[in-house]
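Sorry to interrupt, but I need a hand with the structure work. Please put the record directly below this note.
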Amino acid sequence: MLVLAIDTSSNTASAAVADEHKVICEYNLNHKKTHSQRLMPMVKEIMEDSEVNIKDIDLFAVAMGPGSFTGLRIGVATAKALAHCMSKPVLGIYTLDGLACNGAGFDGIICPIMDARRQQVYTGIYSWSEDGPRLEGEYMALPVKDLTRLLKDKGQRVLMVGDGVPVYREDIVSELGDAVSFAPPNLLFQRASSIAWLAVKEFKRGKVHNAMTLTPFYLRKSQAERELEKRRALRGDCSGV
């Protein structure tokens, strides 16, 4: 089966065409241009270079979060629109699951971290199994210092991947020391090919999403939503005086 996968959950825009056995074509861009400008041209180009017609795609896959609120909306909306227009299935894959694939085969904890700003990260704790990344626990949004404390308590070797690495690397090393290592630059960021691989596995298990109802997985509320709730709470306090 042919899969078209996209990941716009961070500053990196990634698109890939893959089948069950190989990545046919993958483009990754982490430079200036916005996803709204670049995503569809990227999709068009990889389809042409792969010599694949959009009608030949059997499954559309997308990183559905957590991640950038705007980026997720663009990616999910694009995948849903393509799936709906082609009358094909669509699957949303958790971004952190895809990132954990960058640590394939690591014997220890694989810990993807995405910069959530304000000294916080989106993260999860994974181990690697024959079937791929296995989430040990739940997806989390928490301060970096709380994550390093959690990892230190586990007493295992840790491999970190994700765009949070260059932002918080020094803080992490100061807490974990030699117990932590980091993926090289070519394996640090999101890759649509990982989303495609996980989507094929999930689809074979019978999982599929509705193109009309699939929504991004934000993990936490946006800054705008938090500010709005704060203002409403203040107005409520004032009305009670």
